[in-house]
Amino acid sequence: MGYFLMVFLMAFLLLDYAVIYSDATKKFIIGRWDQGLGV
Length: 39
Hints:
This protein is mainly alpha-helical. The chain has one domain. The protein has one helix and no strands.
């Protein structure tokens, strides 16, 4: 039970990190693209 809970928590944290990371990457790419287009 404890092991399963630990694995579940790890997977949840990894998923959360992946979502935040991809969102930040998207914003960065869009920001750079807008900058290059605007200038």
